[in-house]
Batch of 2 targets.
Target 1
Amino acid sequence: MDTIETVKQQGLSAIEQANDLDALNQVRITYLGKKGPVQDLMKIMKDLSAEEKPKFGAAVNDCKKALAAAIEAKQATLKDAALNVKLESEKIDLTLDGYHPHNGSVNPIQLIIEALEDCFVGLGYTIAEGPEVELDYWNFERANIPHDHPARDMQDTFFIDVNRLLRSHTTSIQMRVLDEYSADLPVKLLCPGKVYRRDSDATHSHQFTQCEGLVVGKNITLADLKGTLQFMVDAIFGKGRTIRFRPSYFPFTEPSVEVDMTCHNCNGKGCALCKGTGWIEILGSGMVHPHVFEMAGIDPNIYSGFAFGVGIERLAMLKYGINDIRDFYTNDLRFLEAFKRFN
């Protein structure tokens, strides 16, 4: 019995001295493991008499229970202590100034696209998208652009192979949708997206953003086109700007017109920005060519429509006074942060 008490006291002492969970686990293995002193006590029973064995076994079991209970209690104490240390080390000083996340800004190209979408969705237009890698058929043929047109020249268009190219305008989106909805007219579309042409200088880029509009229905006239474009100019630049039409040529419209806006710098009086004319060109437009309707299976004697296309970068440059189109793509934070006030 003295041996049992000695093992018990030694175990309790070792448990008390354990200062972390790893040390306590080692004590548990040492005293309660298969090769520990408690297990060794059971080996003594074979040398005891029949009367002594029950008392000895009960004493060994009590010793084992006492050590296990002491280990469990010590373990709870050490876990609480470890948690308190962690909480103390991770304490947050609420008096310190917090972290301020850096808020970015919307690119002016996106600002103009969103402004146009807000304007035209309010007029009942649907936003349409299409592939940037386009077929020659949709990009040129269905837009009534003949094979000998300069736009088909490799100097203007990025061809991937004989039939595929990077779209040179978002007219291809209009042609796809017009073909899809030819039996479900009228239709009103706005088609923003990136386009690609072989240009690169202060006012042109090999990649730029275009937004085209298409309206097809009955009794659509140039007056509808002019009223729509005046509404757009008022929405983007504010009221007070007047637009005018000038005769032009585009393969997919007839008649075709260039659209000018009174110079926002001199209010039409004439200045260096508008080269003394009082007008600034902003986009091209016109009435949809009858041949385009016929290719889509639409009777041009019943339906008419107008289309227009505007460069998003051009609108942004005019609206925000940007001189170089390349500023849109250089990711200069000084340039982009200037537009935070428009977010």
Target 2
Amino acid sequence: MFKREPQLVSGIPEGFISAVNMDAYCCDSGKAMSSSSEDLEHYHETVLLEEAVHFMAPATGKVLVDGTLGGGGHTEKMLEAGAIVYGIDRDPEALAYAGRRLQRFGDRFIPVKGNFTDTQALLEQIGVFKVDGVLVDLGVSSRQFDEADRGFSFSKEGPLDMRMSDEGETAADIVNHWDEADLARIFWQYGEERSSRKIAKMICEERVSRPFTATTQLAERIEICSPRYGKKIHPATKVFQALRIEVNDELGSLRGLLDTAESFLAPGGRLCVISFHSLEDRMVKRFIKQTSAEEIDKKEWPAPRPNPEYFFKNISRKPIKAAEQEIKRNTRSRSAIMRVAERV
């Protein structure tokens, strides 16, 4: 088991946010931070909290990573169990909030600004080479989704942004500048939108006279282009999902984490992934299947051979889903699926 040695950290590398300067960071972030109990309670509704913490098995001396820190709900439970937790997030507001919420744990909580896809590199920058578990809760946090200015929701008017960080290309950049074929491709590939070509054509025609700048503007035009006709979900749902995935390179980020997890997880270390749509879950399911098989076989081979990518054993034989009680309390948890693997 790896234990963090303070002397390994010389200076503060880029991306690392010292627990002692978190108050200054909160002020510099440009976001007014309140530490009232009401704000702390309602920042984000943590999904699969008890289930995730159970499989991460936090304990005194264990070094864990919460790759999607968000409001800090999962991290708080792991810290309460005595673990050391590195909380990674690319959203400055989330880091500022979590820093306030978790400051009582002192230097056992270490916030890190960055993308979980770079977990290995971010840890190595601060002298950490092996950890006992990594948890990622994919998708958009309740706070991000409910805040109109972030541009994730088509039900609230806001800028067409959708970035989980404060950097990079926005949804408006994509909608107003990508060609028709590329728009149709991501609407189909990431949103599985059947009217992908029709919607892409409409966008390219209409942006000539009036660029798309607001969430409701785009949603209204999609609804006109592809009417509801008894659909249970809003016609813009899949297009917004596709844009969000593209803006934040969500599938690429997940792939990067999966490809490097075996390098920074100690033997017995757990990989826990909570996903919210089939594209992510399929990727995780296939990865665990591929890396938990001791042997591989092909028709042309006389006998099975050792699997060179055998790094994990499958802990969650079946997908772990929210209980009915949690779904009643938080309807967004209905689509959450967690899968767990353990480093051999």
